[in-house]
Structure formats: structure tokens, C-alpha cells
Design goal:
199 residues, mainly alpha, Arc Repressor Mutant, subunit A, 3 domains
């Protein structure tokens, strides 16, 4: 995580000492929540520290002391969504660990900490494309190209998951290379998912 400027507390923790107005103990939570709201409404292009300061509301100087860039602020806001790992988890229980990961992802998008204001138009387009994909998989199942009992929606979910993993784990400066070589990446992802199916 990006370190706060001049040693200011991370995540908007109140500073102590010094003169002036008393530190606002709630500013960290308020600003990070506002950051997620603004990002959900206007995306990266419209995301600014000024807009977050207005939404919080909070003084711009307080924001810049803690998060000198909008990248640092959004990263801190997204980290707020993450849940700490369960110290009691049995790391030898593969299904239990995978279930916990899935539970955290679900909570990130639809739980109390979920990012607000999903784009309805984008959701409609994605649902339409995935619906077509599921129909293609269902037809392949009927032709006997896939093992009996294969769930079409899980194959589409696996494709989506691999694509998102590739994009999210690739540094932003290198993502253009993904698009330039998208045919190879797409074929590799499709092959990966199909080869994972039982025969």
C-alpha cells in the first residue's frame, strides 16, 4: 500500500498533537466510503480527490495529507473491502478455503461493504453475452462434446474468472499488451477451462 505523506496515519487514522482543530476521528471511514461511492458513480475518469472531499464531506487538505494521489486513495478504499483471513481456518481443507475465498468475493460485491452503483447497462450487455455462451455450452453438452452433468454456467464463470485474474494481476502499464495479444490469451483460457473438465 502507498505510504501516507509525511508519516500521516494510514487509512485516515486521526493524528495526535499539534495545533488547530481537533482531529476528526471519523474522517478515515467517511472518506474511504465516499471514495467507493464516487468511483462507482463516475468511474476512474471522473474520480478525483476534490469530488471525494465534497462527498465525504471533508477538507481537501486533510485528504491530500493522507492520500497524496487518487491512486493511493482508491487503493486504500478497496483495501477496506477486504476481510482479514480467519485465523482458525484449516489450510489443509481445500474446499473450505475455496469456499471462504468465494464468500469474500461475494461480500465484496453484494455485502454491506459492496461497491455501490453497478452500471445497469454494462450488466445487461454482460448478461446477454454470457447467456449466449451458456447456450453454446448447452448445445455442446447435447452433442456429447462435454461430460454429462457439466453445468454451462460454471464453464462461463470459469472463463470469466480466468480473464479477470489475468487483468487484475497484471500491472496497469502492461495491460495494453494483453489486448494486443488477446487471441492467444483467450485461446489459452478456453483451453485451460476445457482441459480441467473430467473425461
Amino acid at each position: 500500500m502507498t505510504a501516507p505523506l509525511h508519516g500521516a496515519p494510514a487509512h485516515g487514522a486521526p493524528a495526535h498533537g499539534g495545533r488547530g482543530r481537533p482531529a476528526d476521528p471519523d474522517i478515515g471511514h467517511r472518506v474511504l466510503t465516499a471514495a467507493l461511492t464516487v468511483y462507482g458513480e463516475v468511474g476512474w475518469a471522473g474520480f478525483t480527490l476534490d469530488a471525494v472531499a465534497r462527498r465525504a464531506p471533508a477538507g481537501k487538505a486533510a485528504l491530500y495529507r493522507r492520500w497524496p494521489t487518487k491512486e493511493a486513495l482508491l487503493l486504500a478504499a478497496l483495501e477496506q473491502l477486504a476481510e482479514p483471513p480467519d485465523e482458525r481456518a484449516d489450510l489443509t481443507d481445500l474446499r473450505g478455503c475455496l469456499t471462504a475465498i468465494a464468500r469474500q468475493v461475494i461480500a465484496m460485491y453484494v455485502g454491506p461493504k459492496a461497491m455501490p452503483h453497478f452500471d445497469d447497462m454494462v450488466q445487461s450487455i454482460v448478461r446477454a453475452r454470457f447467456g449466449t455462451g451458456q447456450a453454446v455450452v448447452a448445445a455442446a453438452l447435447d452433442r456429447g462434446e462435454l461430460p454429462p452433468g457439466t453445468a454451462p454456467e460454471l464453464i462461463i464463470d470459469a472463463i470469466m474468472g480466468r480473464v479477470l485474474r489475468l487483468i487484475v494481476l497484471t500491472p496497469g502499464a502492461r495491460r495494453a499488451a494483453i489486448h494486443a495479444d488477446r487471441d492467444r490469451h483467450a485461446a489459452a483460457i478456453a483451453d485451460y477451462v476445457l482441459q480441467a473438465l473430467p473425461r
